[in-house]
């Protein structure tokens, strides 16, 4: 690579002066020099490895150009074929070739030349020949190369090469969620903790797969059913009443919900990130593959129409109104200076004009004019389980005795505190002069006026006072007006 003799001397000195010693009966047996290789953890190792792989990459390119190795050809629409012959990542190498014995013979010769030129030896015992699709006599071809036959692995739980539209691809996700639920089966988990577990665990398990494949609606319904049953029934998934509609639960807390996410809309928002990356990234290999297969429109901001397959432009309409294309010179602020030759693309609702999944999801959610006093319920110092109960009360969904009687339970209705009046839901106790807040969620007709103040060392209680004469003693931690 035409390095100077002085630089080569430095590198050789760093490698050749290493000395090693071994312990014999817990006594050092003297030092001996290294004859090959580098010391464990030597900082030169990654740099020398990259330089060595440049030699292998050049050899493979020359073999492909000579027609001795085919590589993986991407056939596009009236465009030149795009050929991928090899990929390098750290110390892993993937080489693509046609399933023919001649290709593997030429590849074997190429690896031999690389060993002779670099002094490195490829460990074929740790290498695999992986067939894609139905390949005949794959054992014979693997023997020609001197390695074993393998199969496509899985990455982050996703089997590589699986049909993206098959429902079976998502079976592993549902199975992992059910296994996680089995661990919580015999634990008492408050509803506040259930919200946290749904957001941190159950909803995050399919994220990677959702960012690559379109989730079928039937799969989304099954996974959301597991979330609903866990929220209202606990780890046993008991059949308990779902007190609040799932659409309301999935609304933002500012809109009177719990801030959970609809999986179908989240799937679209994650796909939108790839549309954004396609517009912004110019030289990425995956963009070159997509562009070669489908072609480009709009000076490279988007692809031609792509029906079917993993890549699709069906989602562009969801975000098109929020993408700004900017060409030519000028400035959109000190951090967005563009030359006459360059263009750029900006996201209206994102930070610094950048795409964000959170903002994209908010655009896809059906807008509503509901406002909710989030700061009165979801207070940092108040336990989530207490805030959840207050949220249920605000929605008018607390299972009081009168509500249980309405759904068929045969119970005597008497207040447990005074024993005189009937126990009724909060919104029925609030009369016309109760002063209920007017901008509460529209899911209830007469929502209660609830304000959580904070938490003390004592137990959290609520105060409910109405004209019926029933009063719960006040505690400074929680106040219900």
From TrEMBL:
Residues 1-160 form the Reverse transcriptase domain. SUPFAM superfamilies: DNA/RNA polymerases. It comes from the Eukaryota. Residues 427-447 are annotated as: Disordered. Coiled coil: none annotated. Residues 436-447 have a biased composition (Polar residues). It holds the Pfam family zf-RVT. This is Putative ribonuclease H protein. It comes from Vitis vinifera.
């Amino acid at each position: 690579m035409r390095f100077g003799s002085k630089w080569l001397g430095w590198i050789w000195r760093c490698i050749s002066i290493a000395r090693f010693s071994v312990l014999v009966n817990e006594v050092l047996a003297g030092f001996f020099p290294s004859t090959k290789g580098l010391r464990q953890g030597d900082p030169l190792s990654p740099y020398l490895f990259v330089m060595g792989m440049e030699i292998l990459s050049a050899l493979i390119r020359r073999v492909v150009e000579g027609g001795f190795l085919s590589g993986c050809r991407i056939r596009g629409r009236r465009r030149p074929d795009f050929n991928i012959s090899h990929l390098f990542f750290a110390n892993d190498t993937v080489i693509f070739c046609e399933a023919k014995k001649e290709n593997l013979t030429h590849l074997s010769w190429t690896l031999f030349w690389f060993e002779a030129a670099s002094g490195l030896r490829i460990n074929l015992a740790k290498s695999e020949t992986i067939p894609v699709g139905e390949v005949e006599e794959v054992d014979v071809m693997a023997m020609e190369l001197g390695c074993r036959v393998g199969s496509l692995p899985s990455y982050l739980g996703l089997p590589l090469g699986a049909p993206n539209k098959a429902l079976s691809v998502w079976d592993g996700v549902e199975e992992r969620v059910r296994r996680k639920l089995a661990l919580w089966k015999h634990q008492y988990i408050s509803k506040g903790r259930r919200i946290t577990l749904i957001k941190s665990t159950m909803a995050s398990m399919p994220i990677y797969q959702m960012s690559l494949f379109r989730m079928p609606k039937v799969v989304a319904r099954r996974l959301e059913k597991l979330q609903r049953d866990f929220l209202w029934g606990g780890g046993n998934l008991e059949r308990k009443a779902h007190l609040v509609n799932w659409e309301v639960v999935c609304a933002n807390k500012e809109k009177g919900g719990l801030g959970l996410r609809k999986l179908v809309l989240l799937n679209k928002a994650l796909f939108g990130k790839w549309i954004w990356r396609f517009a912004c990234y110019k030289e990425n290999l995956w963009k070159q593959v997509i562009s070669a297969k489908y072609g480009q429109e709009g000076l490279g901001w988007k692809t031609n129409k792509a029906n079917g397959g993993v890549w699709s432009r069906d989602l562009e309409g969801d975000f098109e109104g929020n993408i700004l294309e900017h060409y030519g010179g000028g400035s959109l602020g000190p951090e967005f200076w563009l030359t006459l030759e360059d263009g750029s693309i900006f996201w209206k609702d994102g930070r610094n004009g950048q795409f964000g999944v959170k903002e994209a999801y908010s655009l896809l959610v059906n807008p509503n004019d509901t406002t909710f006093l989030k700061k009165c319920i979801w207070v940092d110092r108040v336990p989530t389980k207490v805030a959840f109960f207050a949220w249920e009360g605000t929605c008018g969904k607390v299972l009081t005795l009168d509500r249980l009687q309405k759904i068929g339970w045969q119970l005597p209705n008497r207040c447990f505190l005074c024993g005189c009046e009937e126990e009724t839901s909060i919104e029925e106790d609030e009369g016309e002069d109760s002063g209920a807040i007017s901008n509460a969620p529209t899911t209830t007709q007469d929502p209660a006026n609830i304000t959580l103040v904070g938490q003390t060392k004592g137990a959290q209680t609520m105060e409910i006072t109405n004209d019926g004469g029933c009063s719960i003693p006040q505690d400074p931690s929680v106040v219900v007006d």
